[in-house]
């Protein structure tokens, strides 16, 4: 029950209005400590209810009678526009019975309109680091009296190259009394460094480790001979699975566009979302998906980050994500807040070792599914090591293999000795979305 928390009655009223009955584990763990003013470092998955875990304590702090606003009192930093927009919505839902006002600053929106909004001084400012810094540098933003700073999806902000921007913005909030840092993963050295810089004596709440990921989601693999065969399997799945809404993930923009084109040609109501799309397209895609006008979204990782769409119950990994963390984020799109979902990864021989290292990382074994209507010849490696990886059997290539390889891996599988190597058809250190340079991360390291 939410009444177990020392929250203002107007906030409890909003919670009841939203029909939240039981707090989620991250809310149970984080809300009381956040209400005490503690700095927190929280490791919790997307979909765990972490937004409410920081929004409710912030609102509780800011509760009070209506008065002229002179200071921005809380700042919430997030890696992507969509996530920032969703967080704004969540803040507005929880603050509906209060006088608290929130504002949004993200790239892709009019700079002057944002500056005008800042002149009205929102109590809570939500935004992405790059544009916030631009507004700060233009003299439109004063963060000197910020009381609470939240870094949400901090690991992803670092991956997207926002480390310096986040550091600078947190330095601007010099008088802050509380900092809350949320990440979906425990992160690496970059995150540890950030934690050391921005948090004071934090409590670390490790809510659910990745092995408990999206318990409501079944995770399956279907083996495929090559990309053309993957397309046939995808068609079969979209035509035969029962789902309200589906998301198809690819590793490249080109593949996303290709699949989108094929779906539209088959008269599916689909949309494509990747970094080549402008902000209007992105908004439209998400709105249509939410309203149900679009049933299938084809997306790359960064574009789909933080999507929270009701009824998204089928995720297809057309390409296997390059790391366990990316897998977690993709699958986090479904099975949210206790709903059921199905995640299916299409696995060619070149994907097998990556898939099995992700299984080890998650401490899970994906269900092997055979769809007899579209069954190919590849069914997984003949021999596997104890680790689950394929034993390197030297096999004479058939013409069919070569044809498949050309489509999926430019340099061919014999050169792909390591599963950590990025696929040859994508640049190694550039985000597929062209949004920001990606640091090369170690994919799928077992804990
Ligand atoms: P989040 O992890 O914050 O993105 O939340 C995922 C989804 O769960 C959002 O749609 C929230 O509105 C919803 N949610 C969060 N907390 C609860 C709760 N205690 N009961 C029901 N739904 C919730």
Describe this structure in words.
The chain is α/β, with parallel strands linked by helices. It folds into 2 domains: 207 residues, P-loop containing nucleotide triphosphate hydrolases (Rossmann fold); 163 residues, 3-Layer(aba) Sandwich (Rossmann fold). The chain is built from 16 helices and 14 strands. The strands form 2 sheets. The chain has a 7-stranded parallel sheet, with helices on both faces. The chain has a 7-stranded parallel sheet with strand order 10-11-9-12-13-8-14, with helices on both faces. Helix 12 links the parallel strand 10 and strand 11. Helix 2 packs parallel to helix 3 and helix 8 runs parallel beside helix 9. The two termini are 35 Å apart. The protein binds adenosine monophosphate. Adenosine monophosphate binds next to helix 3. The site of adenosine monophosphate has 15 residues, from helix 3. GO terms for molecular function: ATP binding; hydrolase activity; nucleic acid binding; RNA helicase activity. Keywords: ATP-binding, Helicase, Hydrolase, Nucleotide-binding. Belongs to the DEAD box helicase family.
Produce a short descriptive summary.
This protein is of the alpha/beta class and 447 residues long. It has helices spanning 9-17, 25-35, 50-62, 81-94, 111-119, 129-137, 154-159, 163-172, 189-198, 227-240, 253-265, 279-291, 301-304, 324-331, 352-362, 399-408, and strands spanning 40-43, 74-77, 102-105, 124-127, 148-151, 178-183, 203-206, 217-223, 245-249, 270-273, 296-299, 312-317, 341-347, 367-368.
């Amino acid at each position: 029950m939410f009444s177990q928390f020392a929250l203002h009655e107007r906030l409890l009223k909003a919670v009841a209005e939203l029909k939240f009955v039981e707090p989620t584990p991250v809310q149970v763990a984080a809300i009381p400590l956040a209400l005490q003013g503690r700095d927190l470092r929280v490791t919790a998955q997307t979909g765990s209810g972490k937004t409410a875990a920081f929004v409710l304590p912030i609102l509780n702090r800011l509760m009070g009678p209506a008065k002229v606003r002179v200071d921005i009192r809380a700042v919430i930093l997030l890696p992507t526009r969509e996530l920032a927009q969703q967080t704004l919505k969540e803040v507005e839902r929880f603050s509906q019975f209060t006088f608290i006002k929130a504002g949004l600053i993200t790239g892709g929106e009019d700079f002057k309109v944002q500056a005008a909004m800042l002149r009205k001084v929102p109590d809570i400012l939500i935004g992405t680091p790059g544009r916030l810094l631009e507004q700060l540098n233009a003299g439109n933003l004063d963060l000197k009296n910020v009381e609470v700073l939240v870094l949400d999806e901090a690991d992803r902000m670092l991956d997207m190259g926002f480390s310096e921007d986040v550091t600078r913005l947190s330095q601007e909030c010099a008088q802050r009394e509380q900092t809350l840092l949320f990440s979906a993963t425990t992160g690496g050295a970059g995150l540890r460094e950030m934690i050391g810089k921005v948090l004071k004596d934090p409590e670390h709440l490790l809510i659910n480790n990745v092995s408990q990921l999206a318990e409501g989601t079944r995770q399956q693999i279907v083996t495929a001979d090559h990309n053309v065969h993957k397309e046939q399997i995808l068609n079969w799945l979209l035509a035969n699975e029962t789902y309200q809404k589906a998301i198809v993930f690819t590793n490249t923009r080109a593949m996303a566009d290709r699949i989108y084109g094929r779906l539209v040609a088959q008269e599916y109501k689909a949309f494509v979302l990747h970094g080549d799309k402008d902000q209007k397209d992105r908004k439209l895609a998400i709105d249509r998906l939410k309203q149900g006008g679009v049933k299938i979204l084809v997306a790359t990782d960064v574009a789909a980050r933080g999507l929270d769409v009701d009824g998204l119950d089928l995720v297809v990994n057309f390409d296997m994500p390059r790391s366990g963390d990316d897998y977690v984020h993709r699958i986090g799109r479904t099975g949210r807040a206790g709903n059921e979902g199905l995640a299916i990864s299409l696995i060619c021989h070149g994907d097998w070792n990556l898939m099995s290292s992700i299984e080890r990382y998650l401490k899970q074994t994906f269900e092997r599914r055979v769809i007899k209507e579209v069954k190919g010849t590849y069914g997984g490696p003949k021999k596997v090591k104890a680790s689950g990886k394929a034993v390197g059997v030297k096999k004479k290539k058939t013409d069919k293999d070569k044809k498949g390889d050309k489509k999926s891996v430019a340099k061919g599988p014999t050169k792909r000795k390591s599963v950590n190597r990025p696929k040859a058809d994508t640049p190694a250190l550039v985000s597929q979305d062209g949004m920001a340079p990606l640091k090369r991360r170690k994919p799928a390291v077992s804990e």
